[in-house]
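pinning this so it doesn't scroll away 📌
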Amino acid sequence: MNSRNRTKRSALNAGMWPLLLVVALAFFPHQALPQTKAESAPSSVVINVKAPTTPFPHFWEKMFGSGHAVLSLRADYRHDLRMVKRVTDFRYVRFHGIFDRGVGLYHIGPNGQPIYNFSYVDQIYDGLLKNGIRPYVELSFMPPQLAAHHIVQPFFYHPIISPPESWNAWGQLVYHFTRHLVDRYGINEVSHWYFEVWNEPNIGFWAGKPKQATYYKLYDAAARAIKRVSPRLRVGGPATAQAAWVSSFIRHTTQDHVPVDFISSHIYGNDTAQNVFGLNEFIPRNQMVCRAVKKVYDEVKHSSRPNLPIIISEFNASYMNQPSVTDSVYMGPWLADTIRQCDGMTKMMSYWTFSDVFEEQGPVKKPFYGGFGLVAEGGVPKPAFNAFRLLHMLGHRRIPVDSNSVLATRHKDGSLSIAVWNYSAPKQAGVTKTILLHLAGLPADEHEVSLYRLDRHYGDALAAYRAMGSPKYPTQKQFRELRQAARMGPPQYFSLKSDQLSLKLPPKALFLVQIQR
């Protein structure tokens, strides 16, 4: 973290009628909805459903971040992990601190020789694999008895960010750790994992001086130790904040013949243009992540290793605790727009984080505090959870669309899934928007449509939390109410008899439209 098959219903809920009225108006073009002061003029988007498509791998939902290693032993962590896996293509998890004191891996014995204790390591990784999740192993932080200095990062669990007292001992630690994993789980399993060296060494998570040169020394020893175990294992870095060091890192690994199998870096929507690009300009929150990803992409493509996979091992709309951002319906349009822009530039993007079982600032003090997770305390799904659930429904072939508010996809059976959103910045009220979808090339038939929606009336547990007075310590009854409020409800079903579909979206709404053949 930057320190910084559905069941058809014969009746519709009363709350569904207003939207269906708008859909019906698509068949009567001379009629129009009355505009209000908080409603923009309708806009039209053409989707040629017969257009050539491009692959659309779900790169945003294969990996998620979480807190630090020992949290994965908790029942609520594993509960939330299973929740997220049920609604996404969750395959990998990344966390800090597998070498931290709390895991108890490394000690120095009476004779001055290292003793390795893999008890908690095994429990941690056994638990993940039992739940169908593979580790994306972040090699951090420095074991106390290996650190050259007792320099801690000011998280609640005080990770040590010092270089090692002995570089050889650091390499041996990584070797024995990796060797144990291969012995326990087998090379055919562990070769599917990723090993990433450290976390954000360019900012306050690495105390080596000079930062870059000493990080490269750390990386080199770790990468070579991993490849000594097996050349089939994957290792990469530099795991920097703010899309930094990529060109330099590739030059270093090339010139010094150091193994590297992927490039990793981090970016947040509220990072500044100065920190990321060295520019004195304002880059909006919904553009920053993918502009930074483009920077990394271009640097890799222009390097001596242009085919290295790119993994954005942390991203979110904010690295700060901002309830109006990470706890709110804002995350629906933000996430959809980020996926739209970043498509084609990265192998995976790891949303930070899947759960608010998290301790960087200490134990959770109240359920909605702007935590990074998709699931709040008490197993309450946030709007971001619902956004991932909807976007998971997108197909795996993308249809080109000239719009910054629409993602159109096709499934193998020819059905369509279309995401439509109404973006506005967190502190802006936004306006209601009507978007008319022209589905060019849609066969002249009756088509069955399912419509899912996420907005302030559907799937917003934060609004319900505030309505109950924002209790710091909700009762079990209140938690049940919050979980109920977080449900988006069933989709709305109707028949489409033309090639036009009109959708009226409230501010910060995300809709998912499925059209059957």
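📌 and the second one:
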Amino acid sequence: MVFLPKSDIMTLLESAFGSIGHSFACTLKAAKEQGEHEIVIPQGIYHIYADECAAPVVCVTNHGHNGFKSTAMAIEEMSNLTIDGCGSRFVLHGAMDFAIIRGSKNITVRNLTVTCADTCNFQGKVTGAENGNVTIALEEHPPLILHGDALVQTFGSQWEPMVRTLDYVTETGELRRGTGDVHFGVPFQQIKKVLDGDVLYLYDVPDMPEVGDTIVFMMPRRCNQAFLLDHSENILLENVTVHTCWGMAVVAQKCKNVTVRACKVTPEDGRCWSAGQDATHFVNCRGKITIEDCCFENQLDDAANLHGIYTLIEKVIGNRILVRYAHAQTRGIDIYDVGDHIQMMDRETQQPSAFANVAEVEILNPDLTILTLSDVEGEITPGMIVESLSDQADALICNNIIRNNRARGMLVAVKGRVEIAGNHFHSGGAAIQFESDPLKWFESGSVRDVLIADNFFDDCRHGKWCRAVIDINKRPKTVEDFYYHDTIVIRNNRFTQCEAPCVWADNVKNLVFEENEYICSIPFKAEHCIVNGEKAD
């Protein structure tokens, strides 16, 4: 196997250790030392094993498994590098990332496919469903045991229960209409079960699936991503396909200018699911996020999630505040930089009442950080939440196909200019949701300037997630004459087969809904909004 930069200055044969993972590490090291700017990987199928790869220590947002992360490519502190897979297929064995790009600039990865030989999610076919009893023939799956009525997946001496299942129409790969996370009628862990080899029997099931349907079993463990982009700038993923991964396909945290172009997250080999969670996820990013000409289908959560992180003020001493990363899956992300402009707000109303600049950052541990503030305006008290106004990005999301996934098409919570245009949505929940959660996930924030135009919303929200095709959620508490979101324009879109409202909006100062095509009984609901220039309460 040969790794060849186009310049032909560096040619590396497979390592004497016989490990492709080690070969990648050697190639990247040589490219960095010799100033190479392109690595071309001959087309082929490459099997990469987690225990033979580099394993940098990283903290990853919205996953909850921090520490050593095995990865085929550890691209750290590098710049001006293109990796061309030439159509190669990379099969990952064990819990691992394909690429971790950290502290790097001007990095392109293109023309390759990533899949996993084993993951924590699996599926089975319904072979019998009668009189409250269901029989499921399990397909390729990890080690399983029953612990009481909990179906448990084992990881050596550790184990975790399967807590969620999804019902798919096998022939089309679509979610069964009207179903959601609790499609058996009661939470999955409450159903009586018998496991006999590769056959799972369920008893006293209130809501029966159809014989022939595929049941996808999800586990809460989010070990690894396909791509982790961390504290990096000007990153392009182009013509990259991810068939499956343990967690999200692409995570970008504290990055500037990220483009995902002509990429796919899509299942193969008869699977009804692809990525274990979101297709793409962006946290506290700056510059511009671009997602264009992509196809994201059958991932087990959103196609795109763009948001920031709220931290919680525990103590205030003079001009210093002690903040906590309040959700376990935000530990260690370290979002603050000297010079950041921040705002403080009430947790329930999310109305800003104080502003400041960050003069000094002292990280105590993954949970707690001390911020020394300057130019403070307003009163700061314990219990407030803090949001960075500097970590905000523009976003262009255009000409994508988003379909057959659990939950939402996308979640948008960034304050830059956002354009969502020319996309085809067919999602089980809302196609687009505007959400900011100060109580559980601690995800920020409001939007200021959003255009949703020329999209096709094709039978969206046909499952049990969210309230509407475009869902702009309520705040925990409303304040008269304060609007959390600023401007959202919804124009020239087509909505078909809408069983829920096209739009359900709350807390928007300037909401425009015009020149849209739809057939539904309740096209629009609004509370505490100004809609087309008129107040709606």
